[in-house]
Every structure is written in C-alpha cells, then in structure tokens.
C-alpha cells in the first residue's frame, strides 16, 4: 500500500495478502465518516494502521499489540513516517490495551490480521514460520480461530452502530467465520473480499444499526 516499513527480527513480516484487508478498509472509509476513528488490533509492525492513516488523512487510528518488541517497532514506524500524531499505539491483550481511552462505542472501523494457523498445523508443516517470526503471530489455537472468536465478540463494544469489523482469515475458514459472525447476532450478514484466485480471505461485517436481529442468510 505504498508505505515503507522498518522490520526487525521477532516481529511478523507483513504478507502481500494483507493488502486485501487494507484496501478493503480504505475503500469503505472513503465512503464513510469524514473523520473516522479506526482501531487496528494485532497491529504488528503497524502496517495496516499506518497505511490507513497515510491513505485517509482525516483518520484517527488506534493500534494495539501484545509484545514489547512489536509495540516498539510500530511506534518507531509511526514516528519515521511522521504519523505519530494520528496513530496511537498501545500494548495489551486485544481490546484490554485500549481500556480507559474513551473508545467504547466510538470506532467507525476495527481491522485485524489475527493469527489463524491451528496449533497442530503450526507444529507440523508450518513449523518453518517460527524460525524468524514469533509464535503468537501465527498460532490461532486448536482450530485456528481462537482470536477471531474473541475479536468478533469484543469489537461490538467499540464499534458505533453501523461500524465495520474487517479481518483476515486462513484459506478454507470462511464457513467457520460466517458461523461465528451469525452466532454473535450483533452484525449484518457477512460478506467476503476475495484474493486473486477467488478465495475468500477477508471478512467484512457491519454492526447492526438499530438493534434488530440480523437476517439468517449469509452472504458469500
């Protein structure tokens, strides 16, 4: 997304497929609020938060991650790109990092590139990913969707009515993701952004605007 980032060992290297998440977010923000508030969970090097802030000059972005090294790198990137006045990076476990920041019910969008490889797969054919990058960036629990479950549940309290939750997921996880969002009963039916091969890789879920129950159908 035309943003140059510093990277260090021990922090996830941004992947090309995450541009699909970033560009989907930017497209919605261009059509939305004039001064949007955006939250980037699991921000890593700050790639999504900083790309969104660079593309949407009126956006105020809050980003969060768990580890010291990741948060330090994201803050360094924000300063180097002269975006630290609009991008605030906090440290903590998902939304706990933003406690006391006055963001409850205030966000126009939450974006997230969470870990989504199952623990068993990570310990077998995907073990090579751990040679230079941290396990917490990949390990999504027994089925690869543990963080997604928390994200879908907890984002509701930070989104405005009609606000958007966008997140990346692994190949073949779209049915699980759709079921999780439908089960939450706080979002409109999910839609998906697809990669160049046509596979769904990013979920776009809009928080209900009036408290009504969502339609039982699931968009693909």
What is the structure about, briefly put?
The protein is an alpha/beta fold. It has 6 helices and 7 strands.
Helix/strand layout:
Layout: H1 18-30, E1 37-41, H2 47-55, E2 60-65, H3 68-80, E3 87-91, E4 107-112, H4 119-122, H5 146-155, E5 159-168, H6 174-184, E6 191-194, E7 200-206
Parallel strand pairs: 1-2, 1-4, 2-3, 4-5
Antiparallel strand pairs: 5-7, 6-7
Please explain how this structure is put together.
By secondary structure, this protein is an alpha/beta fold. It has a single domain, classed as Vaccinia Virus protein VP39 (Rossmann fold), CATH 3.40.50. 27% of the residues lie in helices and 20% in strands. The protein has a seven-stranded mixed β-sheet with strand order 3-2-1-4-5-7-6, sandwiched between helices. The model is unreliable at 212-220 (pLDDT under 50).
Please give a handful of descriptors for the protein shown.
220 residues, alpha/beta, Rossmann fold, seven-stranded mixed beta sheet, 7 strands, 20% strand, globular, disordered C terminus
Strand proportion, as a percent range, falls in: 15-25%
Provide the number of structural domains. 1
Might you state the CATH topology name? Rossmann fold
Global structural class: alpha/beta
Total helical elements: 6
**Any idea what the shape is?**
globular
Strand order of the largest sheet: 3-2-1-4-5-7-6
Main sheet overview = 7 strands, mixed
What portion of residues is helical? 25-40%
Order of helices and strands: HEHEHEEHHEHEE
Give the low-pLDDT segments. 212-220
Calculate the terminal CA-CA distance, rounded to whole Å: 26 Å
């Amino acid at each position: 997304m035309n943003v140059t980032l510093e990277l260090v060992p021990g922090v996830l290297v941004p992947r090309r497929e995450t541009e699909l998440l970033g560009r989907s977010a930017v497209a919605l923000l261009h059509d939305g609020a004039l001064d949007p508030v955006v939250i980037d969970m699991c921000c890593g090097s700050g790639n999504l938060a900083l790309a969104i802030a660079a593309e949407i000059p009126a956006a105020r972005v809050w980003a969060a991650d768990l580890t010291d090294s990741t948060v330090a790198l994201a803050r360094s990137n924000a300063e180097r790109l002269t975006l630290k006045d609009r991008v605030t990076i906090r440290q903590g476990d998902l939304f706990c990092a933003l406690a006391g920041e006055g963001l409850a019910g205030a966000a126009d969008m939450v974006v997230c590139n969470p870990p989504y490889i199952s623990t068993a797969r990570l310990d077998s054919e995907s073990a090579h990913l751990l040679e230079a990058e941290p396990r917490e960036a990949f390990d999504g629990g027994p089925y690869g969707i543990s963080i997604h479950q928390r994200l879908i549940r907890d984002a509701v309290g930070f989104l405005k009515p009609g606000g958007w939750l966008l997140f990346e997921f692994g190949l073949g996880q779209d049915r699980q993701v759709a079921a999780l969002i439908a089960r939450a009963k706080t979002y409109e039916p999910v839609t998906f952004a697809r990669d160049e091969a046509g596979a769904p890789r990013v979920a776009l879920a809009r928080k209900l605007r009036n408290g009504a129950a969502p339609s039982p159908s699931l968009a693909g």
